[in-house]
Amino acid sequence: MIRTYKVMLLPNNKQKTKLFQCVGVARWAYNFALAQQQENHKQGGKFLSDGELRKRFTQLKQTEAYSWLNNYSNNITKQAIKDACQAYKNFFAGRAKFPKFKTKKRTRPSFYQDTSKMKITDTHVKLEKLTTSKKKNKQKFNWIRLAERGRIPHGAHVRYVNPRVVFDGMNWFLTVGVEEAEIKHETYSEGIGIDLGIKSLATVSNGMTFQNINQTPEVKKLEKTMKRMQRQLSRKYEKNKTKTEGGEFRYRKTENIRKLEFLVLKKRRRLKNIQLNYTHQITATLVKTKPAYVVIEDLNTSGMLKNRKLSKAIQEQTFHEFKRQMTYKCAWRAIQLIVADRFYPSSKRCSRCGHVKDHLSLSERTYRCEMCGLEMDRDFNASINLKNYAK
Ligand SMILES: [Zn+2]
To answer: Of 125, 175, 284, 299, which is most buried, counting CB atoms within 10 Å of its CB?
Structure first.
């Protein structure tokens, strides 16, 4: 199975410049391939293979006007052309929308690295052809420092899959897949059910509960600051708008707006990182208890999403992230993950006698069974029901 690693890069200024150029070349090659396909289609031609497109690209590189393309690794452009062909194929197979040209504004900056050319050590990654110089003292330039030491496995036995260098608006990252074997446990504890909620993010049938990070003062404060900055931003945009002759408004990006937008981005990243980090901690703790199986509810139906008090998008995102992490972490350890049917009444059912209530309002925090008299925390009751769902 393939495990994906994402590690921040610490390029120096010169390397940063070069990375942006690599992104530009990848974008250029992608757009080239797309334009060729479209032109060919207009002429009534069939799909052009990426081999054919690469041939045309190589011819282009040999002309004076495009000789600058030779300053970059040809694996970057090769993959960009492949990606464009794939996007085109996906469209014709009905899997995706018609591919758009990549622009500086709209597209997330990224480019591909060849697996055999890339080298990884504990502290550095060697990218291909950041410098075109063959001189020994210049070769250092190809090596970019990694922010986390020894995070990505390396050595002769390690096989890398689809390495990409990406920029997220603030930092550069290396993402790379590594083929790894599943971890098989000798002993398992019994299965667990996990109820996701607003009050506690996760209530587990084994008695563990995890508080909702979105409810902590730190996160609430961050959200508030972000909202304030956003209002500030829209005020600034409003102030600087001008009316064109056609009577439409034009919004201008001033230097101040640019700065403020960057600050908002920084806050948003911070919030996202806090949430991600926290979810990783919980999911890691849970799989380490080595449960025989894990049951979670169908996120489409979890009643918590109907709560209007909390910023809904953020909560939904946390749930989905939780499920995503749980899914792949269970897969690594060969733990079966079961998603309960959306009609399974995990909240309304009594975990002792199986009686199902007609109605249970969100405000009722304690589950009281009118048949057997069970009284239990609502979420805990739900988590036990989810655990029993597997039987
Ligand atoms: Zn009961």
So the answer is: 125
* Whole-number pLDDT of residue 311: 59
C-alpha of residue 338 to centroid of ligand 1, in Å: 24
Q: At what angle do helices 13-42 and 74-92 cross, to 10 degrees?
A: 40
Distance 203 CA to ligand 1 centre (A): 20
Position 5: which residue type? Y
pTM for this structure?
0.78
Q: 388 C-alpha vs ligand 1 centroid, how far in Å?
A: 14
> Which residues are CB-contacts of 146 (< 8 A; sequence separation ≥ 6)?
7, 8, 9, 10, 120, 123, 124, 125, 152, 174
- Side-chain half-sphere CA neighbours of 147 within 13 A: 12
Distance 356 CA to ligand 1 centre (A): 8
**Helix ranges, the chain (H):** 13-42, 50-61, 74-92, 217-240, 255-288, 312-332, 378-389
Ligand 1 geometric centre to CA of 277 (Å)? 38
| Distance separating alpha carbons of residues 196 and 321, to the nearest angstrom | 12
- Encoded tokens for 100: 């758009």
Ligand 1 centroid – CA 389 distance (Å): 16
Return the HEC string of 16-74. Answer: HHHHHHHHHHHHHHHHHHHHHHHHHHHCCCCCCCHHHHHHHHHHHHCCHHHHHHHHCCH
Residue 206 has pLDDT above 90, yes or no: yes
Q: How far is the CA of 50 from the centre of ligand 1 (A)?
A: 64
Question: In this structure, are residues 271 and 222 in contact, taking their beta carbons and an 8 Å threshold?
Answer: yes
- Tell me how far apart the 2 most distant CA atoms of the chain are, in Å: 86
pLDDT value at residue 308: 52
pLDDT digits (tens, 9 = 90+) for 57-82: 999 999 999 999 999 999 999 999 99
Each residue of 346-378: pLDDT tens digit?
A: 999 999 999 999 988 878 899 999 999 999 999
**For residue 186, what pLDDT band results from cuts at 50, 70 and 90?**
low
